[in-house]
Amino acid sequence: MNEGLKIAVFASGKGSNLQAIIDAIESGKLLNSEVVCVISNKKDAGALEIAKSNGISAYYIASENYSNRDDFDSAIIDVLNFHSVNLILLAGYLKLLSPIIVQKYRNRILNIHPALLPKFGGKGMYGLNVHRAVIESGEKISGATVHLVDEEYDHGPIIIQESVELDPDETPESLQKKIQKIEHKIYPEAVKLFAEGKIKIQNEIIMK
Hints:
Mean pLDDT: 93
Number of helices: 6
Distance between the termini: 13 Å
C-alpha cells in the first residue's frame, strides 16, 4: 500500500482503543496513518470527546435519527467520502455495519474483539458479557482478536490474536482490564501491517 491510511474509527463507548491508535500514531510507532474522523451511534460516547480533544472530526450518527436504513447508511458514507477514508476501524462499535458499507470497503474494515474468536463471538457478545461467558464456561485462557469485517458479527479472517491466562479468582472486570491491555497493543500492530502493505487477502484468506 503506497497511499497513506486515512482512518475512520467507529466507536460506541469510552474510546480506549481509539486512544491507543492515536497514541501509536503520535509516538511514531504507526507511520503513514491518520485518524481523519470518528463516528459514534451514541451521543455521549467518550470516543467523541477523545476525537474533539485531538482535533479529529467527530460525528454522532444514529439510526434512530433517520427515517430509514438507506438514509442512515448514506449519512455514514457521505462522511467517509468527505474524508477520503480508506480504512475503517471498529472499536467497540455496538452496531452491525450495513452490507452496503461492508461491500464498499471490503477488506478495508477491521474489528477488535475481546476474546479468542471464533469462540465467544456473535450478537450480544461485547464488553463484560464476553468476559462473563468465558469465565462461566471454565476456559483457562482468553485474549483478543483483530479480524477483517464481513456481513456477520465477529466473523471474517483473523489478522492477529494474543492470549492471556485466567486467574482462579478471575472476575469479568479483572479479565476486561487484562484484555484491554492486549487490545491496545495488537490493534495498532494490525493497522501497522496494513500501513506497510503486509496484509494480502486472497479468497478471504489473509496472507502475511
